[in-house]
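Mods, move this if it's the wrong board.
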Amino acid sequence: MKLKVWWIPQVPMKPFEYPVNTVLEAKILLDALGKYDAFQFENNIKPDYCNAGGLQMFDEDAQEWYDWESEGSGENINDLSYEYLAAIPLPPPNRNDLRDFRGRKRTDMF
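Not the wrong board. Structure tokens:
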């Protein structure tokens, strides 16, 4: 399953997108981006902000990105706790999906 985080630090600008491997990884990244925006505001780096973000998954059949929802409950990533997400077994790594936003394999970057 292909997943990506999208983040708009100032609505209505174009979203920043970054591939992730798990829903837990997405939750951590989204929380960090939100806290970074708040930090910039609180330290007078930017005068205000109106951000938005979320997680999307790629539907291979439709060849489109859709907002991710938890199977069964329909909850989105903001509704789920770290404890719940940490209990989900991790899928085996797929080295072909480990690409950064420039299309390079992440393993080539380190």
